Amino acid sequence: MELLKKPLTEYLVHRFGPGAVLEKATRFPRGSSRLTWFIDYRPEPGAPVVSVIFRGDFEGGSTIRSSLEQEYFMYERLGHTDVPVAKVLGWEDDPEWAVRPFYIREQIQGSWEVPNYTNPDPVYDEMRIAISKEHLSKLAIVHNIDWHALGFDERLPVPADEASCGAFFVENILHSMEDFGEEPVPLVLEAVDWLKRNAPVAPRISLCKGTNGLGEEVLLNGKIVAMSDWEEASIGDPAADFASLQDFIPEITRDGKHIWGMPQALAFYREVSGINVTLEAVKFYQITRALGTIGYGHSAAVIVQHGKADIRQAWTGTEVFHLGKRILAASIGLPVPIDAKWFGEMNETIQ
């Protein structure tokens, strides 16, 4: 394992006791932000298998500008709330063992895959809507926690007020790009100006998850048992979390009637959260999402240039970077709008 200086079998004994026995170690093939390893071990021979996750940066770094330590912080603090997350089990930065820091969290039983969720057959409509509502209900919990009392503002920047949330969000993305300096992207400054002029007023200031949807949450029997991928968390407009839902608000039309989609989802969310997120605000943050894609695409390109990239980072720094620029330019009206299928492809690329 590339995170350890010594064999994993030895580390398990060091961390979990002299009887610990490795059963299986599997590297998660998805994702370009950080390394994820699934580890199954027995505390002692014959004992039930325990499943944990090792999470660390790639050798060349992460495409996400927030630190691994901040990600660990998010999980630890969320463990004191009603938000379903995996429990953190420890931080490892001892140079005797770690090539670079990583943390360990429990692995929750379940799967990010939902059988037939993307199947358009009407027989699955009820199930797809139920999963969508389940996710919206969990987002409502996230958006209503007392982030100040839990100390999230110790690590995450906070906008001055509701009116400044949109511009503040854009500025944070811009700041995250400042240390790249490898390739000029004039489109970014044009987009930032447009976004600031069109920023909505937030209904409230909330903790926002950042990356949501199919592929990001762990489900079991139709319920979300763990919300994952908090590396893009922020404090601001809850509408921002509707910009990246990766298929969790499916558009369903039957017999000419639009029975589910963003308008219906926002109405349901309003009922369960008490927060009025508008469709206009969601569209604004969808455009900022494209700006953010350029940010981590450029970050990945820098890692590639320095010669220490993981294969998915190479892909992110080329195809995703290019696609993000095309979508952003079209969204603010520079070229002729591109075909809607590109937005579907973007959803696929950022999962």
The number of domains: 2
What percentage of residues falls in helices of 4 or more residues? 25-40%
CATH topology of the largest domain, by name, is Aminoglycoside 3'-phosphotransferase, Chain: A, domain 2
Neighbour order of strands in the largest sheet: 1-2-3-5-4
Structural class: alpha+beta
β-strand amount: 15-25%
Keywords:
alpha+beta; Aminoglycoside 3'-phosphotransferase, Chain: A, domain 2; Phosphorylase Kinase, domain 1; 351 residues; 2 domains
Explain how this protein is built:
With 351 residues, the chain is of the alpha+beta class. The chain folds into 2 domains: 8-106, Phosphorylase Kinase, domain 1 (2-Layer Sandwich), CATH 3.30.200.20; 122-349, Aminoglycoside 3'-phosphotransferase, Chain: A, domain 2, CATH 3.90.1200. It has 9 helices and 11 strands. Strands 1-2-3-5-4 form a 5-stranded antiparallel sheet, with helices on both faces. A two-stranded antiparallel ribbon has the order 6-9. A two-stranded antiparallel ribbon has the order 7-8. The model has no long low-confidence stretch (mean pLDDT 87).
Question: Helix and strand layout, with pairings?
Answer:
Elements: H1 8-16, E1 21-27, E2 35-42, E3 50-56, H2 68-78, E4 88-92, E5 102-106, H3 125-144, H4 165-177, H5 186-197, E6 206-208, E7 217-220, E8 223-227, E9 234-236, E10 252-254, E11 257-260, H6 262-273, H7 279-305, H8 311-331, H9 341-349
Helix pairs in contact: 3-6, 4-5, 4-7, 5-7, 7-8, 8-9
